[in-house]
Task: inverse folding
């Protein structure tokens, strides 16, 4: 009997909420959300043995995501089939994802939130799962990292997706492939597949209720419409990087001050992002979260950052922590206390204390770029030999093609100092 698809219907009903869902996942202005999706079969993206010569596909993929995708231009989350979580255990799955999570990837809970992630996505890097198929059906660009065509009925809609969607190639740049798929995507590309997702889109609640009441031999409650629960707005989930972050920067303007930054989490001994630096890059430095498991890196960090509420009694106020952190890490040139989604308090080695606050968007909502990027921009300004006073009252920070207007507000009179010339030795 025709019953429709309640899962698909809930996705369709929530499509108008895409902008809110993106903000809930911490997707900032100019960022693109990449969803890595895997089912639980042996030749799935997570299974790893879909091709004999490529059984290390997933580790390769996760390491390349952090190495190639700049932190402020891309946001990554993983949607894994519940059987992966319950078959191997949450602890094992988190261990497998450990480096990627420290680089900023978030694993969406196995039962809730994956539909919202699909709606918010700019690209899904997946396999032959229903999640990847749902993504294609709502017009999201799809890049297939694994697709065991031999395991599928060739007449099935999922097999048809495998014949039409682009495939990931391990040679060359992962970022270039993702960007190319997004740039070339036609939202109507999978229109025929979408029509096969459900023959009664939006009608599953009524169809299923009619079926169930018929099986019970009872009349339907005519005074009450058949409804599905709407998808809830997920809790705010910004990316958090506890791996060291390598920052390439360049002062591209002085009147008014303007600094461009590109940030990459460093989770392996692979190529340094500076190897492929753009012509405008004139310096590089390292930022380390104080909660990093790589505690030895704190001793040689150029910038140390802490994320906490401003009134956290364990750490705050920000003025106290920034001063104490400078004492703890004598080789760092600047400390930053991030106490909001769009702001932080920064203390320089010379003792100056300033608040950096990003201007709100046209709709009045907070700029969701990681405030640590603003601290890095200020550090680059100072290490270029320029005075902090010249960055007041504001500095423009560029992350990729996105511009952030950041207020620089001294919290105490600025001391006459010699500009900072170096960070860690």
Result:
């Amino acid at each position: 009997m025709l019953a429709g698809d309640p899962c698909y219907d809930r996705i369709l009903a929530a499509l108008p909420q895409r902008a809110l869902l993106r903000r809930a996942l911490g997707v900032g202005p100019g960022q693109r959300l990449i969803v890595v999706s895997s089912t639980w079969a042996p030749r799935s993206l997570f299974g790893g043995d879909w091709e004999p010569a490529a059984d290390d596909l997933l580790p390769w993929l996760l390491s390349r995501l952090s190495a190639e995708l700049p932190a402020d231009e891309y946001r990554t989350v993983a949607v894994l089939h519940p059987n992966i979580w319950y078959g191997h255990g949450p602890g094992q799955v988190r261990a497998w994802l450990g480096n990627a999570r420290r680089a900023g990837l978030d694993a969406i809970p196995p039962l809730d939130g994956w539909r919202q992630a699909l709606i918010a996505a700019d690209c899904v890097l997946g396999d032959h799962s229903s999640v990847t198929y749902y993504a294609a059906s709502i017009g999201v660009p799809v890049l297939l990292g694994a697709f065991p065509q031999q395991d599928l009925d060739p007449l099935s809609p999922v097999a048809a997706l495998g014949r039409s969607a682009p495939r990931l190639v391990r040679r060359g740049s992962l970022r270039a492939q993702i960007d190319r798929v997004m740039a070339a995507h036609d939202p109507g590309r999978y229109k025929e597949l979408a029509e096969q997702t459900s023959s009664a889109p939006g009608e599953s609640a009524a169809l299923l209720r009619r079926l169930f009441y018929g099986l019970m031999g009872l009349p339907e409650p005519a005074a009450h419409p058949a409804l599905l629960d709407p998808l809830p707005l997920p809790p705010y989930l910004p990316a958090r990087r506890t791996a060291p972050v390598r920052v390439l920067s360049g002062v591209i303007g002085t009147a008014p001050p303007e600094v461009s930054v590109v940030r990459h989490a460093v989770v392996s001994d692979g190529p340094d992002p500076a190897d492929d630096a753009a012509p405008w890059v004139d310096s590089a430095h390292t930022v380390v979260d104080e909660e990093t498991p790589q505690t030895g890196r704190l001793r040689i960090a150029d910038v140390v950052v802490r994320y906490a509420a401003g009134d956290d009694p364990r750490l705050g106020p920000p003025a106290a922590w920034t001063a104490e952190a400078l004492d703890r890490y004598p080789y760092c040139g600047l400390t930053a206390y991030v106490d909001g989604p769009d702001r932080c308090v920064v203390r320089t080695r010379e003792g100056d204390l300033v608040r950096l606050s990003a201007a709100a968007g046209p709709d009045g909502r907070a700029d969701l770029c990681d405030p640590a990027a603003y601290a890095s921009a200020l550090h680059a300004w100072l290490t270029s030999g320029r005075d902090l006073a010249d960055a007041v009252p504001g500095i423009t920070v560029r992350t990729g093609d996105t511009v952030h207007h950041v207020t620089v507000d001294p919290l105490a009179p600025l001391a006459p100092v010699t500009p900072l010339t170096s960070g860690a030795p």
